[in-house]
Amino acid sequence: MxxxxxxxxxxTVSEQLVQAALRPLFASRTSFVIAxxxxxxxxxxxxxxxxxxxxxEAGTHDELVDQGGLYKTLYERQFKPERSPxxxxxxx
Length: 92
Fold this sequence. Notes:
The chain is α+β, with helices and mostly antiparallel strands. It has two domains: 1-44, no CATH class; 46-79, no CATH class. It has helices at residues 12-27, 61-67, 70-79; strands at 2-4, 32-34, 47-51, 54-59. Helix 2 (61-67) packs across helix 3 (70-79). The chain is globular and about 30 Å long. 4% of the residues are buried. One of its GO terms (molecular function) is ABC-type oligopeptide transporter activity. This is ABC transporter ATP-binding protein. InterPro entries: P-loop_NTPase (IPR027417), Type_1_exporter (IPR039421).
């Protein structure tokens, strides 16, 4: 089965519902999921990271985060909250 950005235009709740419905199908066959949203592939057995048409990284989510490469950078951009500036903060 090949899914190409199957949940890209869905909100987070709808994406989770679709992923839950597809999970049993993934268990019984080879599936390729093409996605920019990393939440779509976090539980994949193997993630391939392609940059400018070239395979640059491969592994599980944990392996790719530990490698500290492009995947980790993208993961942090998508999942780590931005820090709010403290400009104008007054304490007594």
